[in-house]
Specification:
It is a single chain. It is built from 7 helices and 2 strands; from the N terminus they run H-H-H-E-H-H-H-H-E. The chain has helices spanning about 1-10, 15-40, 50-70, 80-85, 90-105, 110-115, 120-125, and strands at about 75, 130-135. A two-stranded parallel sheet has the order 1-2. The chain starts with a helix and ends in a 9-residue tail after the last strand.
Length: about 140
């Protein structure tokens, strides 16, 4: 009885056997391609030192530009939620409070107004001193 049940599960029709053979063949081909790929796909080789130096200099200048841009003070009156969250001490809820404050009461002009917004204690506002500005031309002042 067990033998007959097992035999009925392992008996496949001709089309099923062909499908299994095709899948097995594809599996073998994929494994061979994976193992031999490093022989027929070579990484690009830079033979010219000038080209390598030029690429390195370009990379360094891009990194320096990004670092300089990240050090610029953020205008708290024009920043969107993502820019506000990038500041130290400001999370998503605080950023939302700042945006709501700007919509309802207008621009934030100084630290006292910033400290008055819920979820911004005085010490967090002080840490933000170097990271924010209140208008287009002036860096945040006490």
């Amino acid at each position: 009885m067990v033998k007959d049940t097992l035999r009925s599960y392992l008996t496949f029709s001709r089309s099923q056997r062909m499908g299994i053979a095709v899948l097995g063949g594809l599996l073998v081909v994929l494994m061979v391609v994976r193992v031999t790929m490093h022989y027929w796909v070579k990484p690009p080789v830079i033979t010219d030192d000038k080209e390598l130096r030029a690429k390195w200099e370009h990379f360094k200048t891009q990194q320096n530009k990004e670092a300089e841009q990240s050090k610029l003070p953020v205008n708290i009156n024009t920043a969107d939620s993502a820019a506000l969250v990038s500041l130290s001490g400001i999370g998503p809820k605080t950023a939302q409070k700042i945006l709501e404050y700007r919509r309802s009461r207008g621009n934030i002009r100084n630290y006292q107004q910033l400290e008055a917004i819920q979820h911004i204690p005085g010490n967090a506002a002080e840490r933000l001193k170097q990271e924010i500005r209140f208008s287009d031309s002036t860096v945040a002042e006490k």
